[in-house]
Amino acid sequence: MSAGSVLEILEMYFEAFAETDAARRADLLGRCIADKGEIRGPNLRFSGREEIAAKIADATLPPVPASWPRPLAVPPLQDDRVAGSQRTDP
Questions:
Q1: Could you tell me the CA-to-CA distances from 5 to 18, 71, 80 in Å, in that order?
Q2: Cβ(14)–Cβ(32) under 8 Å?
Q3: 44-48 contact pairs (CB < 8 A, 24+)
Q4: Angle at 58 between CA 51 and CA 72, to 5 degrees
Q5: Which pLDDT score, from 0 to 100, does residue 3 have?
Q6: What is the Cα–Cα distance from 72 to 61, expressed in whole angstroms?
Q7: DSSP-assigned letter for residue 76
Q8: DSSP code string of 1-61
Q9: Res 56: pLDDT
Q10: 28: which of 16, 37, 66, 77 fits an S-S bond (Cβ 3.0–4.6 Å)?
Q11: Which CATH number is 39's domain given?
């Protein structure tokens, strides 16, 4: 398997976690996780695409603590040049 193939699979996997549409999420998981695939962690285990999809659908992010700094609005750059870098167009 090439590095490009692995990256494509990982991209689908991460897209599935961000997807809010259940049918689209199921399609993405079907393309990147085997029927009996598992996600394991120190205190968790999700087996099969259906269980993984259900866990994603039920996932909620904890609230951001009030003590954390708030994001700052950053104005867009006038152009896409960054000091010290060179862009090469394909």
A1: 20, 35, 29
A2: no
A3: none
A4: 130
A5: 73
A6: 21
A7: P
A8: --HHHHHHHHHHHHHHHH---HHHHHHHHHHHS-TT-EEEETTEEEEHHHHHHHHHHH--P
A9: 87
A10: 16
A11: 3.10.450.50
| Domain contains 83 | no
Provide the domain limits for residue 23: 3-58
Q: Check: CB of residue 85 under 8 Å from CB of residue 73.
A: no
pLDDT tens-digit series, residues 38-82: 988 888 898 999 999 998 888 766 666 778 777 666 666 555 555
> What is the pTM for the complete model shown?
0.59
| Tokens describing residue 69 | 């700094």
Tokens of 54: 């259900």
25 and 56 in contact (C-beta within 8 Å)? yes
Select the more confidently predicted residue: 3 or 76.
3
Q: Which two tokens stand for residue 16?
A: 């599935």
